[in-house]
Amino acid sequence: MTKLSWTGFSKKTPQERIQFIKEHLPIASATSYRLKEQELLSLTTANQMTENVISRMALPFSVVPDVLVDGQHYHLPYVTEEPSVVAAASFAASIIKRSGGFQTSLHNRQMIGQVVLYNVPHMQKAQAAIAAETKALLAIANEAYPSIVKRGGGAKMLTQEEKGDFLIVYVTVDTKEAMGANMVNTMMEALAPRLEELTGAPSLMAILSNYATEALVTATCTLELRFLSRNQQEAVTLADKIARASQLAQVDPYRASTHNKGIFNGIDAIVLATGNDWRAIEAGAHAYAARDGQYRGLATWDYLPNKACLKGSLTLPMPIATKGGSIGLNPSVKTAHDLLGNPDAKTLASIIVAIGLAQNFAALKALVSTGIQAGHMKLQARSLAMLAGAKEAEIPQLVTELLQAKHMNLATAQAILKTLKK
What we know:
The chain is α+β, with helices and mostly antiparallel strands and about 425 residues long. Helices cover about 50% and strands about 20% of the residues. The strands form 3 sheets. A 4-stranded antiparallel beta sheet has the order 3-8-10-9. Strand 9 and strand 10 form a beta hairpin. The mean pLDDT is about 90.
């Protein structure tokens, strides 16, 4: 993406931001139209996407600009209603960019399906029969979804494992640019009858697993201490505290839960914006957080005194898609992909994990220094001002007085607004 100066972007009006994007980003003319005209999901399309539709629900669509990932600059679409999330991501990405940005690596990019058999009469014979038929079973799976095979994907590997009273057959599938839930489910259901014949056992279910351990992505960054604070000792203290906060999330599940929620403030925002299944992403990631039997923080930070830096790392299952599902139906989703430069699925996965690490850094830095409420309260004051009925011109003064008030609540906002109007 083109490297630009985004200074003052947050101070612009929405219309000025749209104009800035139209003038400086190489996005399609259709995207420019969608931004200008605020073309949203139509009721007709929504009614075809799911059941019992009566309307649509809107959420703020923001931009986190100039995030440096693997040497490329990206402008990230964020769909979120939570105050301070966009500001925190922008702040963290800006600081990390000055230290070289994020580096990512993909461990693989495949999905896993499973066929579960039960009441297996002869477990060892069943396993031997399946092993002998591996090649033929993979062929059955691929015949069930030939279009993905033509694109170079399809079922690649079959394994099996006895777990309690179950014999579980796992199939790894290359879904290319799609998340692949329907694809994998179709393949697993096609395999079930043959597996029942081979084993003499009934199948309990045949379905995709959202625990996508064959679609792991790692993002790392190295942050020079001088970017934490101009005061050297303060920078050292912050680095040490951030590392300790990271350690806390490894040993205390109460903290780990909130640690990971902060990561998903950013991940969910871009997963939702790009039309992906944030529920599947979260389910897989939380399972991964407990992979050794204890729920732990997903992102880790290490203070390296000898190198005067803070090193962060985040590994997640990230089976993200750029094709399939409702991605091609929603105009706002098309806009999101255009803003990103229409990356492929592997690149998009890397971007998403990187911003999750940025979001975690911003939260930890706030927690161990000023506290998390400092950033939240100003934005909360704006929300209260609007709920109280303040007009746009009245909001700045009302926010200022609310932040100085003893009790910052709706009643106080309404009282201050009444005085201002006099």
